[in-house]
TrEMBL record:
Record protein name field: Type I phosphomannose isomerase catalytic subunit
Positions of the Phosphomannose isomerase type I catalytic domain: 5-108
Source species of the chain: Actomonas aquatica
GO molecular function: isomerase activity
Domain of life of the source: Bacteria
Pfam families the UniProt entry points to: PMI_typeI_cat
Length: 317
């Protein structure tokens, strides 16, 4: 299948969202109000990406894998296995809740799914940061007491970020995102989130959002202290490597290319900035904000027409 696979975004209302996807990515949003997430690639019972253009135009991602699984994912990929990666753009105008995703060893017993995710900071305001992990010395007991006293920020690790930074957030890591960040989130296919603290905020319905205190306390890794992000840089490098996926940062100057041979593995190409042509076809381009699947069966050459930055996700099939 010698064509990149494009998807129709699915926009999600979130109380902490905004309208930055319009200006930063040049998107036309489907409705008014705070749009917090654009689900770029998703294969879940409650949400299905629809393919745009080419052989699979109009098919859901599930239908495409059912009908063309060997070409898209490789000959050994089970046709009934959901696509393993979920990609989102996050427009965080307000701080997200403090939350955790259950580790793989306890998620089934809790009726949930593990979720390891990577955050790439595309844009950020000067004061915005991230919360990932615990401050050194924080304990489960101190954390539980801080929940009651509303002093939880004393227990969690917050650090400033700049555009180009990224961090891998494993299941079991307590985390939150400050307002002022535009983030590309590449994650394990899961939608299980336990909300432990919401900073006193009301939901879109004017009521406090549900908390999951017991589930959160059971899921948090109490030995994960002050993890460090991968700071912004321009060299080609692996920025995330986990059991679930690997992400490579690929900067391209105008005229430079990156190529992928057929029959290796499927990959996802995310354009963080710039424009790339596909296989030297001037009319076939991926632009800032696009997230596309490079099928297993295809051979691809991505060439920058302007200085560009790609994230290549692999090792997930």
């Amino acid at each position: 299948m010698q064509e990149v696979i494009r998807f129709q975004p699915l926009y999600q209302d979130r109380v902490w969202g905004g309208r930055v996807l319009e200006t930063a990515l040049g998107r036309t949003l489907p409705r008014e109000g705070p749009i917090g997430e654009s689900w770029e690639v998703v294969d879940r019972p409650e949400a299905q990406s629809v393919l745009v253009g080419g052989t699979c135009d109009g098919l859901s991602i599930r239908e495409a894998i059912d009908q063309h699984g060997a070409a898209l994912m490789g000959p050994d990929y089970p046709a009934d296995r959901p696509f393993p990666i979920l990609i989102k753009w996050l427009d965080c105008r307000e701080r997200l809740s403090l939350q955790v995703h259950p580790p793989a060893e306890i998620a089934p017993a809790m009726g949930g799914e593990p979720k390891t995710e990577n955050w790439y900071i595309a844009e950020t305001t000067g004061e915005a940061g991230l919360i990932v992990g615990l401050k050194k010395g924080a304990t489960r007991g101190a954390f539980a007491s801080a929940l009651v006293d509303n002093t939880l920020e004393d227990c969690v690790h917050r650090f400033p970020v700049q555009a180009g930074d990224s961090i891998l957030v494993h299941s079991g890591t307590v985390h939150a995102i400050d307002g002022g960040n535009l983030i590309l989130e590449i994650q394990q296919n899961s939608d299980t989130t336990y909300r432990v603290y919401d900073w006193g905020r009301m939901g879109l319905d004017g009521k406090p959002r549900q908390l999951h205190i017991a589930e959160s306390l059971a899921s948090i890794d109490w030995d994960l202290f002050e993890p460090e992000p991968v700071r912004a840089a321009r060299e080609d490098a692996v920025i995330a490597d986990s059991q679930e996926f690997r992400i490579r940062r690929v900067p391209l100057a105008a005229g430079e290319s990156v190529s992928f041979a057929a029959g290796e593995q499927p990959r996802l190409a995310s354009v963080v900035s710039g424009v790339v042509t596909v296989n030297d076809a001037a009319a076939d381009t991926l632009t800032k904000g696009d997230n596309a699947l490079l099928p297993y069966a295809g051979e691809f050459k991505l060439t920058a027409t302007a200085d560009s930055l790609l994230l290549i996700t692999e090792n997930f099939a």
